[in-house]
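Revision sheet: structure tokens.
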Amino acid sequence: MNRNYTVDPANCPPIHADRTCTHRGMDLNTCRSIIHVDCTFVSRIDAQQVLVSDSFITNCPVLSKGTSAVKATRARCGEDYHTHFDPKAYLARYSPGHDFYGMKMFFIQQLHEIFRDNQVRGDRLLDIGTGPAIANLISASRHFSEIIASDYAESNRTELWAWTRAEAGAYDWSHYFKIVAELERNRENWEVIQQQIRQKIKAVVPCDVNQENPLAPSVFQPFDAVLCSSVVDVATSCLAAYNLALRNISSILKSGGYLVLTGHLNFESNYVVGDEEFSIVPVTKPNIEMALDGAKLRLVDWREIPMHSSDVPRHHIEGLYVLLAKK
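Predicted:
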């Protein structure tokens, strides 16, 4: 995995304001315009900064020696979620008016329709990588008798338990329950739906999709359905690991069971939570289809919308998707 460095063109000798590299004797791709589509060293560019990889820093005669133009910003990943992921900062993006709110509304709407239109039903549902948020569980909850929530970070599991137990200070999800209740034409009973999901969540356990048993050390019988919301691309380090993670998830799904997967298409920047940046594997629809095939999952339903750079500042995302696959 590449570390990322923010390079300020205004202060960096080899990178001019027009984003061209003036050094000679470097790799041909590096010496081209820094925004050239073929430049393998550049991972992001915008009006204020250029994000470049280790390879560029190493090969640049000036940057490799250190300069005030370079800010080392290694994207967080793996164990960093235990120490640097702030659940409260993450939950702030669910508030109306936040840049990510529109994205959340797409997922809420499509999940409602996925569960409604495809008759996804069963006794037991696993939400793998729940994070500190239960919004995507709301539409699924009425179709299952029992729910197991899970997350890699203990801080997120603590946040989930706080809401499940209706503890003081827990995040208020009433806005989302009202939205889903409206979609279900049952708005006046949103509090009933909220109480039902609290009762249905039977456990909140650790998970790691990179492990052969993603729920280790817990052991469960295979589930009727698995919900996985924007998890696999942030929990893995490359496409090979992404493919393996989907195989691991498939292993705890019953034959004939359903996987509901949500995520981002070509998320080419790190994703930002508070003051921290976390790595993410950019994936395309063909990448996802190949991973599903390798996990012996058949694509049943696919929904997506395009995204534009102005939709979510500080992030570079081509689209959002929600899919349903059957094992």
